[in-house]
Design goal:
Blueprint: E1 3-9, H1 23-33, E2 44-46, H2 66-85, E3 88-94, H3 100-110, E4 116-121, H4 142-147, H5 161-171, E5 185-188, H6 195-204, E6 207-209, H7 211-217, H8 219-229, E7 235-241, H9 263-274, E8 279-285, H10 296-314
Parallel strand pairs: 1-2, 1-3, 3-8, 4-5, 4-7, 5-6, 7-8
Length: 315
C-alpha cells in the first residue's frame, strides 16, 4: 500500500488570469460539501507562495516573476524529493501549472538515475520559452524547463542578461540537465498550442493522444498506449491540468478550450494510470474558483483526486 503525502502549492504567479492560488482551498471546500474527510487522512505540506509579487511591477516581461518562480521551484523540489526519499507518494495540488517544473526537478533529485516519463494531460503544450512566449506567463513553460529547451530556432525575443541567467538556473535546478527527454513525454487531449511549440513537438516526434482518440477507443486503450510508449521509463509523473476538460465544464480555469475530455473520461484515464507501479507522482493544477459558478471545477477536480488516490491506496 502506498503512503500518500499531499503537497499544496497555492501559487499563481505563473498564470495570466488571477485566482488560481485559491484552487487548493476550493478543492478542500468541495470535499467538505461532499461531506468527505479526505483531507484529514493524509499528511500534508504547504509550500510558501510568492503571490505578493502580483502587486509589484514586472521586471522580466518574457518570463514574468521568474525570480518568484525560482523560489517556488526550490521549495517544491525539496518537498517532493524529501517525500519520495521518505517513501511517500507525492500528490501535488497546485495553483498554476508553472510549478510542475519544480515537481519534476524534485522527482529527479530523489531519483537521479531514473529515466523519467511524463504524461501531460492538458489542452496546452506548455513548451514555450522566454525566447518564444506570446504572453510571458510562466505556466506556459514548465515542459521546456524540464527538457532544457530554449527553442532558439523560433526565437522572437531578445532576453536581458538577468532573465537569461535566471532561465538557465531554472533549467539546471538540482544540477540535473535535462530532467526529462522530449521523447519521454506523452500529451493527452492537447489541442491549443502555438507554431513555436508545434515545431518542438515535430522536431522531437512527441507522442500526442487526442481527445477524439480517447473517446473513440476508450480510456483503458488510451492509457495502455501511453504506458506502452513510455515502457522503457523507470518512473512516470502524471500532470493533470483541468483545462484538458471540455470548456463546457471547465469554466473554472484560466484558459478553457473546447473539444476536451469529459469528466468521466479524465477520471477513468487517470485511475488507469494510477494502477501502474511506475507512476511516482501525480499533480492536479489550474482550478480557479473566481471564474466559476457553484465551485463546479473544484468539485470535478476533487472527484478525480479522490478516485485516483483510492486506486493508489489499493495497489
Amino acid at each position: 500500500m502506498k503512503n500518500i503525502k499531499l503537497i499544496e502549492v497555492p501559487s499563481e504567479i505563473g498564470a495570466g488570469t488571477r485566482g488560481a492560488s485559491l484552487g487548493v482551498d476550493a478543492i478542500k471546500i468541495a470535499a467538505l460539501d461532499f461531506m468527505s474527510n479526505f483531507f484529514v487522512h493524509f499528511p500534508s505540506e504547504k509550500i510558501q507562495a510568492e503571490n505578493n509579487l502580483l502587486f509589484e511591477p514586472i521586471q522580466s516581461p518574457y518570463a514574468k516573476r521568474i525570480h518568484g518562480v525560482m523560489s517556488i521551484y526550490e521549495r517544491l523540489s525539496k518537498a517532493v524529493c524529501d517525500s519520495i526519499k521518505g517513501h511517500f507518494f507525492p500528490v501535488i495540488l497546485s495553483g498554476d501549472h508553472s510549478s510542475a517544473g519544480g515537481t519534476i526537478a524534485g522527482i529527479k533529485m530523489a531519483k537521479p538515475k531514473s529515466k523519467l516519463g511524463v504524461i501531460w494531460i492538458d489542452a496546452h503544450a506548455d513548451m514555450h520559452t522566454p525566447y518564444t512566449t506570446p504572453t510571458g506567463n510562466m505556466h506556459g513553460m514548465p515542459l521546456a524547463i524540464a527538457i532544457g529547451e530554449d527553442n532558439e530556432e523560433c526565437k522572437t525575443h531578445e532576453l536581458d542578461d538577468k532573465t537569461k541567467k535566471q532561465w538557465d538556473q531554472l533549467k539546471n535546478l538540482g544540477g540535473i540537465f535535462p530532467k526529462v527527454l522530449a521523447e519521454d513525454i506523452v500529451f493527452i487531449s492537447l489541442r491549443d498550442f502555438e507554431s513555436e511549440e508545434k515545431s518542438l513537438i515535430e522536431k522531437y516526434g512527441i507522442k500526442v493522444i487526442t481527445t477524439s482518440e480517447v473517446r473513440r477507443n476508450g480510456a483503458e486503450s488510451a492509457s495502455r498506449k501511453a504506458l506502452r510508449y513510455l515502457s522503457d521509463c523507470t518512473d512516470i509523473y502524471v500532470s493533470f491540468d483541468v483545462d484538458s476538460l471540455d470548456s463546457s465544464i471547465s469554466r473554472g480555469t484560466g484558459t478553457p478550450v473546447s473539444n476536451g475530455l469529459r469528466e468521466r473520461e479524465a477520471e477513468d484515464l487517470i485511475s488507469k494510470f494510477m494502477q501502474n507501479r511506475k507512476i511516482c507522482c501525480f499533480e492536479i493544477t489550474e482550478v480557479n474558483p473566481t471564474l466559476d459558478k457553484e465551485n463546479l471545477m473544484a468539485e470535478i477536480a476533487f472527484n478525480i483526486l479522490q478516485r485516483s488516490v483510492n486506486v493508489l491506496m489499493m495497489n
